[in-house]
């Protein structure tokens, strides 16, 4: 493959007007490497500090002492940075455009309105006994109250933990317990693609699980008015409590290293881990990346299609844009409803200038042909962005041509829940684009490729992607388990942050992410641990053993392929496949729905009993000729059996 085939040079209008052109990117990047202290001291000034930091960087990636602190003697409040400081200049500017699932529903919320409602909610949280350091779980639809709840927590120093609205009651329970949440904020129902999802009912079910009695109250937004059960003394209507509060609430002075939020994400082993993000460094980094990568200009309409349940929603729907005084669009629904042209229709309706979405959404549209966007013109678009998984060059080109009318640069942004903000991405005024490459590192980011022994590889090469030094936006720990944080990210290669991703670097120094090198799946941009799905399956009484792998999927990027060994005497029927599918959906959530289940009388194992996933991945991908060395298997004949009965996908 030639990397040089399609290079899209920087557009002149971007080079002339963007926040950074090539010379500025290079100078700033160099400064961020040579003098991180000076560089980030300067960047911290983009925020309003109650007490400005004098200690800038105090970080160690050493395996025996992982300790990351930025701006540690500074004091600030995140909500004051996202709201209060904008009131004078842009109090009447729209902060949030909300577009409902139903195309007839939308509203604009100004900075002044968002400020007032957030303060009322902050006072309401106090009335419920929530204070500095308490954790609050949010399980909400994509409605403005979700952003308000995040900001209200930050105003009083409470720590939010947002759980994606597609997760199951058990997942909610696990996270309420893990974060020790006194309060859950939810809605009666969410609405997506015309369908109602019973959020409150899920919370009710979650809170029957052992250990959830830490949670004292449930604050319920009335979104649909659908019927719900009500537990007196525990459940509180959002509007009833919030309406009567004062719209002034003094922002709590938080230390830069006080926690801002917990966000659970999947890893290769064990239960999902709650990454801990802190205050000063996170906000500095979210705001700076939002400004430079999206080249956000005053007055522009910016739309990130993610859900606030994921890190992308945290950093690039709520915190980055609002810290920058942007107008951020929040969409409740799904891109395919009521028609596949919906995304374009929303762009036209609200004159969106910057559209940040995921490759899976692009591929889903591609499947409907060139004319899928014909109901819209999308003339307002200036810039496109991609996140969540590698974007294949075909999808990139289609995105550029059909959605962006061949005039919008695409910023392919590589980053992770753990990194807090964008790490590798082009700056549209500075970086020529190569479809499929996330291109070059952001300011302050020092990527490297290492071999499996941790030796750094130079020049054009391929290896494991690591980051060599700290940056302000990164997670500081795993909530309640620093040892696991060290183990997961800093023990594979001493002194380096290990991303879990494989990557290629070309002769121009461009980075091409090749995907996870661990047992983490990326299905439609959603991260899932194979171990999580396996442990769900083996909890079913019919299942003796299960192995889960990813396989290439045209739209989702990766699909979920499951090999199941049944207990003796259980019939392998299609009904049972359906039942197992439902089981996983119910246990984890619909995003974990298996695409393929194959009955496996035996699984390929080493003599020490370790499942050889490499082989299972090959069979799932229908690459049965290149299975490699199977000589270490305890019983090589199981492989032939699996190939012979390979499931039709
Ligand atoms: C922001 C987010 C992180 C994993 C990451 C990588 C994959 C994300 C990507 C990308 C290639 C991109 N990933 N962006 N791969 N190109 N532009 O997605 O966070 O949900 O934690 O997922 O997603 O594999 O390691 P998260």
TrEMBL record:
<dbReference type="GO" id="GO:0016208">
    <property type="term" value="F:AMP binding"/>
</dbReference>
<dbReference type="InterPro" id="IPR011904">
    <property type="entry name" value="Ac_CoA_lig"/>
</dbReference>
<feature type="binding site">
    <location>
        <position position="501"/>
    </location>
    <ligand>
        <name>ATP</name>
    </ligand>
</feature>
<feature type="modified residue" description="N6-acetyllysine">
    <location>
        <position position="610"/>
    </location>
</feature>
<comment type="similarity">
    <text>Belongs to the ATP-dependent AMP-binding enzyme family.</text>
</comment>
<feature type="domain" description="AMP-binding enzyme C-terminal">
    <location>
        <begin position="532"/>
        <end position="610"/>
    </location>
</feature>
<feature type="binding site">
    <location>
        <begin position="192"/>
        <end position="195"/>
    </location>
    <ligand>
        <name>CoA</name>
    </ligand>
</feature>
<feature type="binding site">
    <location>
        <position position="543"/>
    </location>
    <ligand>
        <name>Mg(2+)</name>
    </ligand>
</feature>
<feature type="binding site">
    <location>
        <begin position="388"/>
        <end position="390"/>
    </location>
    <ligand>
        <name>ATP</name>
    </ligand>
</feature>
<feature type="domain" description="Acetyl-coenzyme A synthetase N-terminal">
    <location>
        <begin position="25"/>
        <end position="82"/>
    </location>
</feature>
<dbReference type="GO" id="GO:0003987">
    <property type="term" value="F:acetate-CoA ligase activity"/>
</dbReference>
<dbReference type="Pfam" id="PF00501">
    <property type="entry name" value="AMP-binding"/>
</dbReference>
<keyword id="KW-0460">Magnesium</keyword>
<feature type="binding site">
    <location>
        <position position="538"/>
    </location>
    <ligand>
        <name>Mg(2+)</name>
    </ligand>
</feature>
<keyword id="KW-0479">Metal-binding</keyword>
<feature type="binding site">
    <location>
        <begin position="412"/>
        <end position="417"/>
    </location>
    <ligand>
        <name>ATP</name>
    </ligand>
</feature>
<dbReference type="InterPro" id="IPR042099">
    <property type="entry name" value="ANL_N_sf"/>
</dbReference>
<keyword id="KW-0007">Acetylation</keyword>
<feature type="domain" description="AMP-dependent synthetase/ligase">
    <location>
        <begin position="84"/>
        <end position="467"/>
    </location>
</feature>
<feature type="binding site">
    <location>
        <position position="516"/>
    </location>
    <ligand>
        <name>ATP</name>
    </ligand>
</feature>
<dbReference type="Pfam" id="PF16177">
    <property type="entry name" value="ACAS_N"/>
</dbReference>
<feature type="binding site">
    <location>
        <position position="312"/>
    </location>
    <ligand>
        <name>CoA</name>
    </ligand>
</feature>
<feature type="binding site">
    <location>
        <position position="585"/>
    </location>
    <ligand>
        <name>CoA</name>
    </ligand>
</feature>
<dbReference type="GO" id="GO:0019427">
    <property type="term" value="P:acetyl-CoA biosynthetic process from acetate"/>
</dbReference>
<dbReference type="InterPro" id="IPR020845">
    <property type="entry name" value="AMP-binding_CS"/>
</dbReference>
<keyword id="KW-0547">Nucleotide-binding</keyword>
<comment type="function">
    <text>Catalyzes the conversion of acetate into acetyl-CoA (AcCoA), an essential intermediate at the junction of anabolic and catabolic pathways. AcsA undergoes a two-step reaction. In the first half reaction, AcsA combines acetate with ATP to form acetyl-adenylate (AcAMP) intermediate. In the second half reaction, it can then transfer the acetyl group from AcAMP to the sulfhydryl group of CoA, forming the product AcCoA.</text>
</comment>
<dbReference type="InterPro" id="IPR025110">
    <property type="entry name" value="AMP-bd_C"/>
</dbReference>
<dbReference type="InterPro" id="IPR000873">
    <property type="entry name" value="AMP-dep_synth/lig_dom"/>
</dbReference>
<feature type="binding site">
    <location>
        <position position="540"/>
    </location>
    <ligand>
        <name>Mg(2+)</name>
    </ligand>
</feature>
<keyword id="KW-0067">ATP-binding</keyword>
<keyword id="KW-0436">Ligase</keyword>
<dbReference type="Pfam" id="PF13193">
    <property type="entry name" value="AMP-binding_C"/>
</dbReference>
<protein>
    <recommendedName>
        <fullName>Acetyl-coenzyme A synthetase</fullName>
        <ecNumber>6.2.1.1</ecNumber>
    </recommendedName>
</protein>
<dbReference type="InterPro" id="IPR032387">
    <property type="entry name" value="ACAS_N"/>
</dbReference>
<feature type="binding site">
    <location>
        <position position="524"/>
    </location>
    <ligand>
        <name>CoA</name>
    </ligand>
</feature>
<dbReference type="GO" id="GO:0046872">
    <property type="term" value="F:metal ion binding"/>
</dbReference>
<dbReference type="GO" id="GO:0005829">
    <property type="term" value="C:cytosol"/>
</dbReference>
<dbReference type="GO" id="GO:0005524">
    <property type="term" value="F:ATP binding"/>
</dbReference>
<dbReference type="InterPro" id="IPR045851">
    <property type="entry name" value="AMP-bd_C_sf"/>
</dbReference>
<feature type="binding site">
    <location>
        <position position="527"/>
    </location>
    <ligand>
        <name>ATP</name>
    </ligand>
</feature>
